Amino acid sequence: MAASSDLAFDPWDPAFLADPYPAYAELRERGRVHFFEPTHQWLVPHHADVSALLRDRRLGRTYLHRFSHEEFGRTPPPPEHEPFHTLNDHGMLDLEPPDHTRIRRLVSKAFTPRTVERLRPYVRRLADDLVSRLVAAGGGDLLRDVAEPLPVAVIAEMLGIPESDRAPLRPWSAEICGMYELNPSRETAARAVRASVEFSGYLRELIARRRKEPGDDLISGLIAAHDEDDRLTEQEMVSTCVLLLNAGHEATVNATVNGWWALFRNPDQLAALRADHSLVPTAVEELMRYDTPLQLFERWVLDDVEIDGTVIPRGAEIALLFGSANHDPRVFADPGRLDVARADNPHISFSAGIHYCIGAPLARIELAASMTALLEKAPTLSPVTEPERKPNFVIRGLEGLSVEVS
What we know:
Helix 10 crosses helix 11. This protein has one domain (16-405): CATH 1.10.630.10. The chain has helices spanning 14-18, 21-30, 47-54, 82-89, 99-110, 113-118, 120-136, 142-147, 149-159, 169-177, 186-212, 218-224, 234-264, 267-275, 280-290, 322-325, 360-377; strands at 34-36, 41-44, 59-60, 139-141, 226-227, 230-231, 296-301, 305-307, 310-312, 317-321, 381-383, 402-405. The strands form 4 sheets. It has a 5-stranded mixed sheet. A 3-stranded antiparallel sheet has the order 4-12-11. The chain is α+β, with helices and mostly antiparallel strands and 406 residues long. It contains 17 helices and 12 strands. The N and C termini lie far apart (52 Å). The radius of gyration is 21 Å and the shape is globular.
């Protein structure tokens, strides 16, 4: 086990953010677990450990189902952060059984595979339309013009949010997601709290309207979903809608731009994809692996766990390094090479265990639709300039991606 001062891991260093994968290789070589003093977290870089710990019930996304903050040796969040934590802590991503089991079961009644599959033609039409506009303009910002509007429109359509109300959705999401970065600033927290209040207020009004006038949308489905007398509370519905919107587009947006930037830097793989569009499904999985949109996922240690002789005590926090796990040479042959035809690809970009991403099938449909539309309608697509990377580590993405169609 190495001390944090000895590690190349530095999530605030622009050089690390530009390319964290060499530092991950060093972490994997130096051991299975490392204590990182700046965030008081235990870093876990190997695929086998990350995969196993995602399924280990001695770890949890929360500890409040078993302990108070004081019993767990943790300081409660500041009172002024309460709107964010109320919103975040009632979503199934941050709950453990039995609440997680109950909410996921009820949400699954509305978010069925059939519901998702029914969206496929809509997603494809929307992707075709966005790409056609990009081509007609001779290019633009791939993030702003295609990657962002597609999943936001799809999840808003699913939820039943009117088009006229959709403008604030992406800003609200971005401000809330700022709290998922390591050691967020006071300003970041204040913006997240404000967005939580505004987004929650909007959804409460929309839920009230749907109670009076149900429609063929996910919010109406969440209101109707029940097991015998068990229903979602209003707060659980609000938190679920925010989670579905945030998780339902953040990863897709970043996977799209990270993926296309990776293809531009690997022209042989882009050429292979352009020559054979049947590679799109494997390319989607490979791009999710190659430059992972969610680099880190945290877990609380509810009961002591031992990793390679190191006992990690109850009350500690483990940082599961998805980006490192997805480049582990014990699992992926030549992991630093982009291979759009890679068949054996057990990446963990959608997590695993009980918190496996409920929206993974929809994300795959969206990523395949935008990629196919760009391959078909913009076969000469190329970058204009090298993009600027966002100064974030946990949620990895670009500020934009300027492209042209010659």
